[in-house]
Design brief:
The chain is of the alpha/beta class. It contains nine helices and eleven strands.
């Protein structure tokens, strides 16, 4: 079974144009991401799917293959699907190109659960929501799942809704979705050929398309939500963490 990690990295970014090459403690952001991803032990191959030669040049210099893709893809998932055309893969891990502190163990955990059987079409992750600001922030996507870990729904609204008072169970009730995905390649190909569903159009969450077409998505739990770089302030925050860790 071949497991391929793909990092989508486009040039355009509304809040931080060209952010893939923004310097993070002396290294381009995409290099920081690639270095973390290469620490994962269950990936057979790592690719970067990009629409810009400048990004490709940095990636190729690291000894990682960059695949050029069209600039007009509506999502990173579509970009990954194009990059994988003609490439043999059984399982694909979509790793965000703006998370320089991505945990390699999280990547391995997703790869392991997808490779352990064929019952899952997709896999993703979630971390506990620990404060009301995140809980009520529509930019923080929430997810609920069943007793087997199968995703039931993703939403920008608060789910589950607490009607009276929060039950005392000793377990986290609200979880934030983390934007890392594992796909069985055959399901990925089906996914990108399907038109967005009404819930997806409403919430602007492409994972709802997978649920709409009957996709079985397993959600694994992790303690940390991760840090994405979207603004100059994010750059400073991540740099402070890296310096503190001696990186």
């Amino acid at each position: 079974m071949k497991i391929v990690g793909v990092i989508p990295a486009r040039w355009a970014s509304t809040r931080l144009p060209g952010k893939s090459l923004v310097q993070i403690c002396g290294k381009p952001l995409i290099q920081r991401v690639v270095e973390r991803v290469r620490l994962a032990k269950r990936l057979d191959t790592v690719l970067v799917a990009t629409d810009d030669k400048r990004i490709a040049d940095v990636v190729n210099a690291l000894g990682v293959k960059a695949v050029m893709t069209r600039p007009d893809h509506p999502s990173g998932t579509d970009r990954i699907a194009e990059a994988l055309e003609g490439i043999k893969a059984d399982i694909v891990i979509n790793i965000q190109g703006d998370e320089p502190l991505i945990d390699p163990k999280l990547i391995d955990s997703l790869a392991k659960v997808m490779a352990s059987g064929k019952e899952w079409d997709m896999g993703t992750a979630a971390a506990p929501i620990t404060n009301d600001n995140d809980l009520n922030n529509p930019s923080v996507v929430k997810v609920v799942w069943d007793e087997n870990g199968r995703a039931l729904y993703f939403s920008r609204s608060v789910i589950p809704f607490v009607r009276d008072k929060k039950p005392e169970s000793g377990k986290a009730l609200h979880w934030r979705h983390i934007g890392i995905y594992a796909y069985r390649k055959s399901f990925l190909e089906k996914f990108v050929k399907t038109s967005p569903s009404l819930p997806e159009k409403s919430e602007k969450l492409e994972q709802l398309r997978a649920l709409h077409i009957g996709g079985r998505i397993v959600v694994i739990q992790t303690a940390e939500a991760g840090i994405g770089v979207d603004t100059p302030e994010d750059v400073k925050y991540v740099e402070a963490i890296i310096r503190k860790a001696g990186g």
